[in-house]
Amino acid sequence: MNRQNQHELIVSGIHLELTPSLKTFVQEKTERLFRHEERIVRIRVELECDPKETVSARFKAKGHIAIHGPDMNAAVESDECHKAVALLVDKLDRMLRRRSRLMKVKRHLNHVQEQDAEISSAA
Length: 123
Fold this sequence. Notes:
Strand order of the largest sheet: 1-2-3-4
CATH superfamily: Ribosome hibernation promotion factor-like
CATH architecture: 2-Layer Sandwich
Shape: elongated
């Protein structure tokens, strides 16, 4: 079974019609997140267009990653929809990398503490 089939990607538009090219763009960008972290269950991307906002914040992209452990949320604003998606994926990628580094540090600290406890009990 292909690893990508186990993951779920949900793309929705608020006041915005999702074109096939936009859906494909989101899928291509989020593949990077699925490759980095195999424990991702679902990624939900919401794209919103608010014509009443200023031009620089017209498009909003919100991302929600359901993962084993605490879920992750991020939101970005931009003047173009594709640019907002790219910024969102970059932000989620940074969050996943930071989470991964923190998990490695915690594992290392637990291992060191266990070794210290073994040494002190042997003495």
